[in-house]
Amino acid sequence: MKTGQILRHEVDLLVVSDFAAVAQEAAKQVVAIADKAVARCGRFTVALAGGSTPKRLYSLLTAEPYCTRLPWRGTHIFWGDERAAPPEHPDSNFGMARATLLSRVPIPANQVHRMQAERTDLDAAASEYESEIAKVFEIRPTDEPPMFDLILLGLGPDGHTASLFPYSHALQEATRWVAPNYIPELKTNRLTLTPPILNRASAILFLVSGGEKAAVLQAVLEGPPDPERLPAQLIRPVAGRLLWLVDQAAASRLGEKVP
Ligand code: 6PG
What we know:
This protein is of the alpha/beta class and 259 residues long.
C-alpha cells in the first residue's frame, strides 16, 4: 500500500514510510490535538501507551519543534494500561514514559497519574485510578466516563490493544472505567482502561509499525467482526476521531483478500 491518507470503513488510516515516520507523524498529531484541547478547555488530557513505537514518539516530544509547542503545565498524563511491574522495572509502561519523556519536560509531578499495577489488590488499584480520573475531570466515578482529549494505543500481534487481550475478562466490562485483567498467555495480571472509557475519547491514535503486524492489522480493519479474538476491533469512538497511523510494512496486506 502506498503512503498517504486513505479513508476506509469510516476509519482514518494514514500510511507512512517506516517506524520513524510513524513517530514523527504521531508527534505532529499530538501537538495539533493538544492545541485544540487547550483552546477548547484550557488543558490537555492524554492516556499513554506502552510499546516500542510510543517510546520513539516520547523521545521526539522532548525535542524541538515539538517540546516548546506542548502545554506541559496544562497537561494531565494517564495510562491506557500498565504491567504488573514497579516503576523501576524495565517492563513498566510508566517507567518507560518517565525515562523517555516525563523526566525531560516541565510537567508538574501532580499531573502525572500512574497506574499502580504492581499492587496485590488490583481491584482496589483500579477503583483508586477511577477516582483519580474522576477527580481530574471533576466528576464522580459513577458518572458516564469522561472524555480524554487523546488516547494513544498500540496493536499487539495477537490483536490486543491496551491490556485488552483476546478472550480476556475485561473485554466484557460495560461500566467500570479501569479493570484488572488476567492474561493467561503471560500468566500475569495487568490494569487496563476499558472499552467504555476508551471509546469516549475525543481522539484515539493507534500507532502500528512492522511487518509482524501486517496480518493482524488486515484482520482488524478488513476481516469480519470478531472482537473477542481481535480486541482492537472494540475500539469505536462514540463521537471522537479514530486515526490509524501505520507504516508501509504493517499496511502491506491491506487491500488483499482476507485469508
Ligand atoms: C503494552 C501496551 C500494548 C502495546 C502493544 C503494541 O503495555 O505493551 O500498552 O497494548 O501497545 O502490545 O506494542 P508495540 O508497539 O511494542 O508493538
